[in-house]
Amino acid sequence: MRDRSTRSALVRAVHLGGARTRAELAEDLSLNRSTVKSLVDDLVADGLVTEHPSSGGGAGRPSLVVDPVASAAWVLSVDAAVDWVTFSAIGWGGTTLAEVEHERGAGRSPEELVERIVAATADLTARVGTSPRAVSVAVPGLVRSADGSVRVAPNLGWRDVPLGQSVGDAVGLACVVANESDLGVVAEHTRGCARGVDDVVYLFAEFGVGAGILSAGTLLGGSGGYAGEVGHMRATRRGRRCSCGSDGCWELSVGQEALRDALGLAGPARPAALARAIADIAARRGTLPDAYVEDLATGVCTIVTMVDPRAVVFGGLFADVLGVPSVMDHVRAAVNDCLVGRQQGVALHVSGLGRRISVIGAAELAFAQLLPRL
Ligand SMILES: [Zn+2]
């Protein structure tokens, strides 16, 4: 059996699992060894993998290790964040081949971003030695997945920007555009601490608070693309006016500015300063202020009850907050005490992907379309 879907399954297994022996691939994919051999021979002929003897000992003939050639199929993954833009050449198999990061400076227009992407494509092509197969862009805003147009990105000042079309035309490649929270959960699902878990919430705080939700392996978008805007669920009976125009939003209790206030800091709420303050206060007191932690736990329980995930991964400033053991203990106890937690347990993790989570997720979204064609 050497049909296209079998080749795709093997390509995907190598992409997600990295270098593995033919024997391991045969076992994982429930294929016989001769089928794996002929598929791998084709991939070697196409320049997509190399093979070398496994270094492990053991009796008998060693199985050859199948190793993806990252530069043979790579995507240009762009994180168009508010304060910086990262351009990353990520090869199949998940290897980062080259990466550059620019401060945003004053220019945040879509036209400027497209120009930078064109320049980065040339730069990274020269460095890697081969051309990218696709481009993917992470944007802090609402994106229509069908055509990659940005409906609104408040922190960039964008509205109705046909970014996918503009980038695709400019570089002559397929371009996928997605929201950073969706990409967060994609990254955790493929390369992070929720690998292989199909029901996951990625919950993060940066400028705002948001969530990417994977339900039965599918990204949850909602009818208008607003699913996951958990920072704006009404969490208090009366509160200050939120930037979204509503009143009493959860973000006002647990977001960046609320965290600054809870920690007793003055001035603008900057992530690096907040992370330092969290570490400092946790070291001195062993925990963070009770009211903040309780509001956080309440919201997490609401989300868990609504979504019924197997795992929740905390990113951005929440990674710093939940990295304090006593805070994690408090939130975990609250989750274990709510209906879903009592019934089946929900794993809580702190993201280990850091600031690169968006480029990793964006690359994986592009690979989801690219791999079946390799
Ligand atoms: Zn709001």
TrEMBL record:
Q: Which family does it belong to?
A: Belongs to the ROK (NagC/XylR) family.
The organism is Rhodococcoides kroppenstedtii
Q: Which InterPro entries match?
A: ATPase_NBD, ROK, WH-like_DNA-bd_sf, WH_DNA-bd_sf
**What Pfam families does the entry give?**
ROK
Stated name of the protein: ROK family protein
